[in-house]
Amino acid sequence: MDLLFWTAVVAVAAFLIQIFRLIRADGDLSLMWAEAFGASPASALQGKVVWLTGASGGIGEQLAYQLAECGCRLVLSSRKEDELERVKKTCLERSNLSSADVLVIPLDLLDVDSHKECLQSVLRHFGKVDVLLNNGGRSQRSLFLDTSLAVIRSLMELNYIGTVSLTLLVLREMVQCGHGTVVVVNSIAGICGVPLASGYCASKHALMGLCDSLQIELGRQPGIKILSVCPGPVQSNIVKNAYAEELGKPATHNENEGHKMATTRCARLILIAMANNLLETWICSQPLLLYPYMLQYLPSLCRAISLMFGQRRIDNFRSGLDADDYFTRSTCKTKST
After folding, report:
1. Which residues are catalytic?
2. pTM of the predicted model, to two decimals?
3. Residues 127-165: tens digit of each pLDDT
4. I need a labelling partner for 18 at 20 to 30 A (CA). Which of 121, 188, 198, 254 fits?
């Protein structure tokens, strides 16, 4: 009887501790455990050759700086060569790397025919790729019924097909070498649906399926790791650069960045996930972090709640308010489309 009593006490205490940790967390509990007790990025990543796409701004730019500080040799890629050179300069200022340790390779994810030559340039310079960090991509701010098929197609070709193309080429090299890590910067939108971003969600869900499948296909090759990291709202230019209803139309940008996670914090958590080989990682502040947990364990209740807050997001968007601030209520009364 005493044994059963104390077993119950320990179980309840452990449960309460986990709840307390979750309330204070800005990442899933495995990530928070790795941050507290796992390998540090400085020790686990030092000296590795990391190819980073989307490196000219936002999360990618902060990843470049922190990877440089960890002593990684870097390949920086995006379409904007002048911005990449700026990021390279800052990487050198913030680290002990030499100019030869940071290679700038302009790359357009949509131009899949150019990816093989980009890889050959990297191999000629460094001889290998230890980590491919797929961060390039673009978001969306438009209602599905108002969005052209060209926008949906472009989102899939950029976020999914472009990432698949580069991953396929680099992963083949990694398998031949017997080691390597592919990291996909996905999104919470790759786990659950988000209004105003149906095409973006579709592309991120596709990437999640890709990662899940590759983890199984390559499961008998212990030197190969496929990691998926899923940030929530982050302070960056992602909304400013998002697709709208038509190609070439700028997205409405009235976002308040104050309630979003700092880009430096997001980048730090991604590096911790990489250092500890966490296969799937959720990076998001509360209360939004609770959403993927609820979706896993209470899907019907979660979807009912998402209908309420999702409609608020749409109303805010139509009123010119911050669509990402789910806790600001628009006073505009709109009819459902």
Report:
1. 200
2. 0.90
3. 999 999 999 999 999 999 999 999 999 999 999 999 999
4. 188
